[in-house]
């Protein structure tokens, strides 16, 4: 069975700032056997159920969680392209590396790809930081493209920040293995399969004073997580 992966579960109608001022967010990467992993999965599942009525039971091999004073603010999952198949390849007619190569107009190594999904947020204001951490960490780890299934809301956030994801296709639930009913009303949000060029995303971060500051504040987190994820480009997770 192909494990589930989508972006995203954005919580609705949450006050914009419920956190104490000056509380510095902390980031941590969880592999499948990591202590505390179950709590991150429970957090993601709860958000998907709250927003979409979805009942997630499976998650991507790596999960990154953002917390403030121990309270979860957001999370997303990652799967290196060396895994066969990626969840979103169910939506595609050809292997993902071939699809990316067509858009990139050059040969693309599958090991340079990473699937992103399981995005969940407690507060929408955490979205920009999560996306900056995502792009900066993946680029530092040596990935060239991220591939993901995204709702209209998250796509709009990406474009607002200056990122330019490329469209592959619509995400058709009829192509999924198993019972698509577990996704609740997720597919009513018109999710689409997209590609993000991580080199271009890194340029956006470096040329935006706001986004660059976010990345600089979390330089140690980015370096630590990137070093671990670099192994995942060609290996099973065993951090």
UniProtKB/TrEMBL annotation:
<protein>
    <submittedName>
        <fullName>Thermostable hemolysin</fullName>
    </submittedName>
</protein>
<dbReference type="Pfam" id="PF12261">
    <property type="entry name" value="T_hemolysin"/>
</dbReference>
<dbReference type="InterPro" id="IPR022050">
    <property type="entry name" value="T_hemolysin"/>
</dbReference>
<feature type="region of interest" description="Disordered">
    <location>
        <begin position="1"/>
        <end position="23"/>
    </location>
</feature>
């Amino acid at each position: 069975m192909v494990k589930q992966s989508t972006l995203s579960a954005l919580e609705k109608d949450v006050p914009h700032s419920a956190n104490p001022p000056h509380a510095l967010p902390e980031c941590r990467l969880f592999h499948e056997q990591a202590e505390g992993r179950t709590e991150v999965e429970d957090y993601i599942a709860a958000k998907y159920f709250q927003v979409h009525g979805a009942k997630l039971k499976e998650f991507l091999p790596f999960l990154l969680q953002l917390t403030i004073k121990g309270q979860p603010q957001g999370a997303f999952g990652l799967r290196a392209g060396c895994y066969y198949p990626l969840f979103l390849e169910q939506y595609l007619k050809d292997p993902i590396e071939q699809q990316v190569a067509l858009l990139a107009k050059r040969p693309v190594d599958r090991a340079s790809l990473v699937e992103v999904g399981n995005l969940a947020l407690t507060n929408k204001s955490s979205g920009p930081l999560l996306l900056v951490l995502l792009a900066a960490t993946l680029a530092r780890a040596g990935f060239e493209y991220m591939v993901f299934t995204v709702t209209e809301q998250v796509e709009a956030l990406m474009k607002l920040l200056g990122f330019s994801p490329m469209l592959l296709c619509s995400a058709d639930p009829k192509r999924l293995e198993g019972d698509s009913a577990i996704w609740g009303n997720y597919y009513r949000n018109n999710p689409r399969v997209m590609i993000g060029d991580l080199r271009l995303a890194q340029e956006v971060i470096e040329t935006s004073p706001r986004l660059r500051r976010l990345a600089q504040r979390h330089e140690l987190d980015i370096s630590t997580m990137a070093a671990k994820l670099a192994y995942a480009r060609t290996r099973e997770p065993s951090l």
